[in-house]
Structure formats: structure tokens, C-alpha cells
User: Which sequence fits this backbone?
């Protein structure tokens, strides 16, 4: 399996050897590295990408969920080519940013927004805002949920052992995370224990998408909102991923109104743009001499125009119908494979995304997730790569389909997956 990957990607290996001289692990994000060396991509078009060895892949990682409009979408190319003729950064405010703000507020049921460039920046600003509004310090986050790479929330994202509070990077002092409280996802009892009057906010991925794809218990969600009202803390939906999965995001899907919503990834058609949005009385705290929010690249002209086109023309309600339909096909395909091969394989799906687990059932939270043996997943992954399918970005990620994927792409995915899972079935696990 691994040998197939290695024999197909000699140029990636050479580039890795060269790049690691100048970049740790030869990459510019830890999440792009996997053993024995990362894949170096050259270009993409629609549902496909090509690596430096000229291999073609159908891509279901899509920039970790960014490119639901597909690679090199014609409308995005057109709009950014036009825009850049008039400058990419204005420094002062760009006149069309308000148009985008209005589109987002109306679509996602938000009163006011500010823009940043990444999910990390947006969640960082959101907890500052929540603390300023409530005049409290403590933030609850869920184990296994990822909110970007800033210190205060980079805790218990992917601990190797469960129990206790563990920073997910070295270099994070205990003092910095002393006001971050960790709770199990989908576990009302564990949430109730800490949901007190000294909490500023709870931040969550409303559907957990950094542990594969773990569905949300609706009763649990209801309790979180009830307790927040009761105890006076804010609910922050980190919709960096989920915001692009349903037309109105997870808030629309669950029919709830969080105090603050973060958007990112898919909403700007591949350009860097994120949103911190929320209720008017909270958002109005942002301003000079009040709550700080800044960023040189915030709402640059390219991202603003790409996002207007993405939301108005590309990720429309009918586009979501198609995305969900293709994702349904994948889900059914994987379930059939599991049944036909008699493999212990569970499948989860939410909108255009889904994931597979080599276990009897989909985990409920991180404790169940990390208990699994991932050796089968890695066999599956390398077979998929060697047969020209990038099924997802990693064992804790999920597939995403784009408006450029075809039924033919999906059928090929299922065919290759059958072979990959057959091989994975024969992989010796630590548990067998
Ligand atoms: N929040 C969530 C839920 C995410 O999945 C991610 C990235 N995968 C982030 C925040 C961070 O976003 P970015 O990489 O744009 O900083």
C-alpha cells in the first residue's frame, strides 16, 4: 500500500528532501504533512488535482473543505482577474464589503459581522468579544474540537491519551489555558457540571469535523442553549467548516440562534476570508478604544468579490441539493461496501461531507474516537491515493464534494474504496 504510493510519487519525495532544508517537515502547515512524505500538488481543475509527478487525483479534501466551488472555478477566476486590475488591498475600507456583510447577515441570520482572513483569527476574536461582553473569563471548549492554532483554544484537540487538560502544542504555558475548560462532546452530564455563572462562553463546532464527522445529539445541543440562557454565558458556533455545508449553516440546520457565529473556509470560493458575526448588542462592542479587531488583509478586494460571487451565484440552494445528493451516493456506497465485505466499518454523513470509521459504530466523542486503531484507515488511505482518489485530508477529516464533482467521480470513488477497504480488512491492527 505504502509502497504503491512511494513508487507513484518519486518527485514528491525529492521535493520533500529539498524543502525540509528550509521548512520544518517541508510544509507550511502541520496538517499537510503525512508519513513518509507529503504530496506536492501542482494544479487543480474542477474535482481534480495533479501532483508534481503528473498523477491525477479526484479530490475530496478540497483544501480541507474550502473548495466546494471546485478548483479553479471559472467564475472565481473571472471575478478575481477583474478585481485585481483595481488593486487587491485598499488599506481603507473597500466599498463593496458592506454588500457582502448584508448577504451574509441575511443568509446566516446574523445581525452584524466583521471580517478576518482565517478561522483561527475569527475564533480568537470571538472569545475576546465574549469575555468583553460578559465580563467573565472562562471559556468551555469540547475535547477533539479544533478552533485554529491560537494558544487559548489549542487544548485537548488531539491528545494521545484522554483525561486532564493537555495543550495540543508545546510552547503553550499553563497560565494561558487556565481559563479554558474541557468537556466531552455530546455529554450533557459533563457539560452541566461546568456550565456555571462564571463562564463567558462555550465554543463548539456544531457538528464535530475534526474527528472525522461526529453527528450532534440534538438533545445535547438543546441543553447547551438552555444552560447558556440560565447561567448567562454566550454560545459561539465555530462554523468555519459547517457554515459551508448547508445553505444557512449549522445554525439554520438546527434552527438555533447562537450569540456569535464564525464562518470561514468555503464561503469565499477558495480565497481567504472569515467572519465573526453575532447579535447586535455583542458586535457593537467592537470598535476603536473598545474591543480590538484588526487585520491588514481583512476583507481584501479579492476575497470580498470572490465571496459575493460564491454566495450569490455558486453555493445556491439548488447547488446544495446537488452536493447533498452526491454525498448521499458516497454514504450509500460505503455502507454497501461494509455490508458486502463484512467489514467493521461505520459511516457518518452531514450534507456534502462524511467520514468512515473502522469500527462498529460512529464515535460519540473524542474518547471513543481515539480508542480506535487507525492502521486500517492508513491502508485504505494509501490505496485510495495510489488509485487516484484523495478521499479526505486525514483520519480525523471528512470527504467533501464540490459542485464540480460528477456522478462518474462518485462511482469511481466507490469502486476504488471497495478495493481499499478490502486491503484494509486484511491489515493487522494493534487490536487484532
Ligand atoms: N475552526 C474549525 C472548526 C476548523 O476546522 C478550522 C480549520 N480546519 C479552523 C477553525 C481554523 O481555520 P484556519 O485554518 O482558517 O485558521
Assistant:
Amino acid at each position: 500500500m505504502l509502497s504503491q504510493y512511494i513508487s507513484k510519487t518519486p518527485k514528491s519525495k525529492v521535493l520533500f528532501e529539498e524543502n525540509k532544508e528550509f521548512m520544518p517537515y517541508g510544509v507550511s502547515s502541520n496538517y499537510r504533512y503525512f508519513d513518509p512524505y507529503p504530496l506536492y500538488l501542482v494544479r487543480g481543475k474542477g474535482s481534480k488535482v495533479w501532483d508534481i509527478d503528473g498523477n491525477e487525483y479526484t479530490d475530496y479534501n478540497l483544501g480541507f473543505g474550502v473548495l466546494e466551488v471546485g478548483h479553479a472555478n471559472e467564475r472565481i477566476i473571472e471575478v478575481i482577474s477583474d478585481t485585481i486590475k483595481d488593486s487587491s488591498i485598499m488599506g481603507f475600507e473597500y466599498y463593496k464589503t458592506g454588500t457582502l456583510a448584508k448577504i451574509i447577515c441575511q443568509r446566516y441570520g446574523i445581525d452584524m459581522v466583521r471580517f478576518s482572513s482565517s478561522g483561527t483569527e475569527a475564533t480568537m476574536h470571538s472569545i475576546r468579544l465574549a469575555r468583553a461582553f460578559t465580563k467573565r473569563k472562562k471559556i468551555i471548549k469540547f475535547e477533539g474540537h479544533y478552533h485554529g492554532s491560537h494558544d487559548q483554544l489549542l487544548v485537548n484537540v488531539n491528545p494521545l491519551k484522554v483525561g486532564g487538560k493537555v495543550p495540543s502544542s508545546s510552547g503553550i504555558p499553563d497560565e494561558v489555558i487556565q481559563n479554558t475548560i474541557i468537556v466531552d462532546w455530546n455529554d450533557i452530564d459533563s457539560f452541566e457540571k461546568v456550565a456555571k455563572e462564571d463562564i463567558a462562553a462555550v465554543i463548539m463546532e456544531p457538528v464535530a469535523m475534526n474527528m472525522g464527522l461526529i453527528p450532534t445529539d440534538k438533545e445535547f445541543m438543546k441543553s447547551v442553549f438552555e444552560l447558556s440562557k440560565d447561567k448567562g454565558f454566550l454560545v459561539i458556533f465555530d462554523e468555519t467548516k459547517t457554515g459551508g455545508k448547508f445553505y444557512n449553516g449549522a445554525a439554520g440546520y438546527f434552527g438555533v440562534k447562537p450569540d456569535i457565529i464564525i464562518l470561514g473556509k468555503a464561503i469565499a470560493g477558495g480565497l481567504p476570508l472569515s467572519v465573526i458575526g453575532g447579535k447586535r448588542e455583542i458586535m457593537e462592542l467592537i470598535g476603536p478604544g473598545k474591543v480590538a479587531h484588526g487585520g491588514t488583509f481583512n476583507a481584501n478586494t479579492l476575497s470580498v468579490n470572490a465571496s459575493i460571487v460564491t454566495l450569490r451565484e455558486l453555493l445556491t440552494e439548488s447547488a446544495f441539493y446537488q452536493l447533498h445528493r452526491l454525498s448521499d451516493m458516497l454514504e450509500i456506497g460505503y455502507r454497501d461496501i461494509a455490508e458486502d465485505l463484512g467489514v467493521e466499518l461505520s459511516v457518518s454523513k452531514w450534507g456534502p461531507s462524511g467520514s468512515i470509521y473502522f469500527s462498529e459504530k460512529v464515535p460519540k466523542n473524542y474518547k471513543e474516537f481515539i480508542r480506535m486503531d487507525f492502521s486500517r484507515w492508513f491502508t485504505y488511505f494509501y490505496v485510495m491515493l495510489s488509485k487516484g482518489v484523495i478521499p479526505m485530508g486525514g483520519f480525523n477529516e471528512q470527504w467533501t464534494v464540490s459542485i464540480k464533482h460528477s456522478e462518474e467521480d462518485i462511482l469511481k470513488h466507490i469502486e476504488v474504496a471497495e478495493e481499499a477497504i478490502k486491503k484494509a480488512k486484511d491489515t493487522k491492527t494493534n487490536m487484532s
About this structure: Residues 64, 118-120, 123, 146-148, 205, 210, 238, 240-241, 264 surround 4'-deoxy-4'-aminopyridoxal-5'-phosphate (CB under 6 Å). The chain has a mean pLDDT of 96. The first strand starts at residue 41 and ends at 45. The longest helix spans residues 317-341.
